[in-house]
Each structure stands twice: as C-alpha cells, then as structure tokens.
TrEMBL record:
Natural source organism: Fodinicola feengrottensis
Protein name: DUF4262 domain-containing protein
Pfam families: DUF4262 (PF14081)
Source lineage: Bacteria, Bacillati, Actinomycetota, Actinomycetes, Mycobacteriales
Listed InterPro entries: DUF4262
Amino acid sequence: MTKEPNSSCSCYLCAHPEIVDPTAWARAQIAAAIADYGWQVVSVIGGKKSPPWSYTVGLWQSYRLPELFVGGLEADDACHWLNHIGGRRRDGEVMPVHTPIEGIVPPPHQVVLRPVHDNWRVDLLAQLELHYGSEAVPVEQVLWSDHDGLFPPDPGFDRVFRNKQPFLWLPKDSHPMNAWRKGDLSIRR
C-alpha cells in the first residue's frame, strides 16, 4: 500500500509516496553514502521558532573521527562546512577542541570545536542513534563566531545570533531555556 501524496509539503519523502518506510529508506541512504564517501551529512530544516541543524553520520565508523554537529545554518552552508572539516580531518589534520580552525569561514569569523554532551543525542542526533545504536560515539559541535569573533556564550556575542546555536557541551538540563532546550525538537526527526 502506498501513501497519498502530501501537497502541503515539498520534502523528498512527501513527493515520493512509494516510500512506505521512511526510517528504513533514510538508513539505506545513509549507509550507501557512507560506503561511497565515508560519511553523510543529515540536515534538519528549521521552523518559525526553531533553528536548523546538521550533523555527520559515518566519520566514526569510517575513520574513528568524532561526528560533527552545527546549528543555526541552512543545509547548504552546513553541509559545506561539515564536509570541509570532515575532509581535512580524514586527511590527517589535527583540530583540537577550543582552538580556532582556519579556512572554514572568512575572517573575522571563526569556528571552534566543542565536545557534545551525550544527553543531546536523542533530541538532535536521531540518525546517529539509529546508525550506531547504543555505541558511545563522540560528537563535536562546530561553533561559529559573530562578526567580532565572539562565540556564544561570550559576553558581547551578537544578540542576533544568540539562539541560533545550542550549547551542546552543557548537559541538557543546564542549557538556557530557548528553542534548543524545548521538548519539541525531537519530534522533527
């Protein structure tokens, strides 16, 4: 039995009603990308009250490198950043956490990596959970600066960008209450 097309949504799954098990389809797509390229970037489209986010699946499996997460960027930019960082790490570049990474974004912007606390996995990293199961896979957040080179939660960080990036290095219950901490993120898998 096939699904009826959803005319109010333009996503791939709604445009292809013959896909009757979206979870199995997504897992197959991710597995194929990992086999071909070493990893896959998964993006979640933001809404009116919630920012978008993207993350890798497969860096740990293929290269024993931490998976990567970035919040607050549209899918095209996030994919470019994550693939660029993943490729440089795959090729042997060491990128320690809390150290600015050159060549990802033009100055005065910067990016740094921060370790992601495990209790964010269920809400934000659903495909990682499906792919790796209970395996404890390290994840690092790609944190980006404002125009002055400040990062959240630095004093003076540009208010325009304040809620675009989560503080995933904090346990969820220690995170400031905003779009990232609300319980409705996990339903958008």
